[in-house]
Prior knowledge:
This protein is an alpha+beta fold. Helix content is 40%, strand content 22%.
Amino acid sequence: MTEIYQEFKQMKNIPQAILIILLSVILISSVNIKDDSRKEVILDSTYSNLPILHLNGTPYENGFQHGTIMKNRIIELVGLWKKEIENNYQISAVEFIKIFLDSTNYIPAIKKWTPDLLEEIKGISAGSGIDFNTIFAFQLIDEIWTNARLINIPHHCTSVGINNYKKDGSSNYIAQNIDITPFYHGFEMLLDINDKDSNSRKFVTTFVGYIGANGLNKNIGITGNTLSDLKSSLNGLPVCCIIRGVLEKASFDDAVNFIKTIKHASGQNYIIGSRQEIISLECASDLVTEYWPDSTRNYTFHANKPLTNTLYHPEYLVYLKAIYGTIPETISFSDKRLETMKSKILNSQSIGLETIMNALSTKPVCNSNTFVSTIMEFNTDYNELRISPGSPDSTEYIVFRIKK
Length: 404
């Protein structure tokens, strides 16, 4: 700006009053341009039990803002997570993280399939002031559960998908209760991520410091349930990156192809939904199968046992052989949560929002480990995400809408 002023000074024929006006216009224009290009980040505290972080920067910027704004909460939760590790494995958290990361190799898969998420994780680390290895390991919840083989895994999610469009043209739904260790409870958060360049938007259900547990964009949504009995991989794509990777896709087919193409770090069931379609995919490291309760394919549901995929984890095969003396040709899995969901769905004449909310609020689908309950609704002009930040039998759902 000094150079511009000097140039104007050399224009001796211009009266000083006009010179001042011209300089003022330039200064105002410069300020306006700066304001228009500035990335705005807003922490929305409208709901006391669900902070909402609105992000519209680059992946690194989004992560950095996440880490900076939620720094104290992230430090608190990571501290609780470290204590849990030390209680479970009887070694220091620092040593556990080093051993686990030295024994696995997830970074190349992340760089190949979801490089932006690696930048976001780096941003969270920088913003929170927590070293990268710790924040990275903090993202690997399913991978730690799967490969460290906890005796009692407290992660028991239940999910459902309903294709009403195929039947009568009404709304499709996918829904899930996320059940995780109680120390995570109270750290719920929603990410609202906008990319103005691609005109994309996504809602991501998560907890502070974590890139995402499930979510919804303008066209599709995804839920995930741990299937720790299936074969894992030490160099596959981690679950959190798969969830977010799907939410970068613009179509149902692209999302399904992504799931079927990648190598999976952990056994997992993903239910993907859109306006016209739903699907349930059981994923082992190198095998993906579909699960449908019947031939109509109008609905599906899942808990934490594989129902069609037989590519089992080697340690699970050892467990089966110890029980049966040999590995059975077929294994029939079920549990009370799955049977409860099945009963609620099959005994309903019309499977809509009320039926789904009722199923998610019924014990044992709803239990002491329920962290959040989410329902995603798909319509022609908009999609909606309903979140109950806690047990849905006692916590109201909050509704968020994405217009198409």
